[in-house]
Amino acid sequence: MGTLKQCDPLVAREFEDYCTDVFGAIEFSDSTKAWQLWEVTSGFWSKSWQNKWRERQLTLIKDYIEEHCRGDAEIEVVNFDGNPEKLRAHLYKEFGAGTSGDIHTKEGEYDAGLPEKGQVAFPSGVDMRSKLRQLKDRQQLFWRMCAPELRPSYPYCQEPKLIRIVLEHVDYNPDYKECVARLLNSVSLRKEIANDIFAAGSNGSETGDPEDPGDRSFNYE
Fold it and tell me: Residue 64: CB partners within 8 Å, gap ≥ 6?
């Protein structure tokens, strides 16, 4: 909830793309109805139709959440009279992972590399795939919890923060320290080679350095 663009400010191709996305959602649940709406005479391609459809879907979503909630959460949903698109964020703040204290706790655990009790984040012999998946899942949790408009400025849901945490804590273990050094040296070497190739191809013209995907990944800022 709250991730679909408002259609009123959209113009031309933007609004057409918006309608196409809505059409895809309707087609997924009822293809016959969807194709009946495709015709211009159906009104589907107007903003008034789209706004009414949007309001109807938000009502249905709120009803579904209310039906499946229990206890305090159900009461909170029933009493919620704000913008339905903010309901998800509201519930995150009121319960569980969304409370400010829990968020800060989870951020601290993430900064520490999500270690098991009494261990470092990356102990010798750790299942690296499982560990990286665990960290990636936590990053995705932050992404889902954060309001879409705040995500660009919230480091905990960004890929560079995840990479920085992995490199920092892997480096603490001498068993992995040499591997990490070789990896970083490899990234640096690839950048130098890319720069040389780019410079040769430009015949000495003044240009900026090409952006290397590996180098970009290892820069936090």
Answer: none
Q: If phi over 0 gives left and psi between -120 and 50 gives alpha, with beta otherwise, what is residue 114?
A: left
Q: What single-letter amino acid sits at 46?
A: S
Query: How many Å apart are CA 175 and CA 179, to the nearest integer?
Result: 8
21-55 pLDDT per residue, tens = 999 999 998 999 899 999 889 999 999 999 999 99
Global pTM reads 0.49
Do the beta carbons of residue 12 and residue 19 sit within 8 Å?
no
176, two tokens: 């992995």
- Please enumerate in sequence order all residues whose Cβ is within 8 A of that of 88, keeping only pairs 6 or more positions apart, or say none: 1, 2
Rounded CA gap, 71 and 74, in Å?
A: 5
Contacts of 163 (CB under 8 A, 6+ apart): 217, 218, 220
Question: How far is Cα 131 from Cα 123, in angstroms, rounded to an integer?
Answer: 10
| Interatomic CA distance for residues 162 and 107, integer angstroms | 11
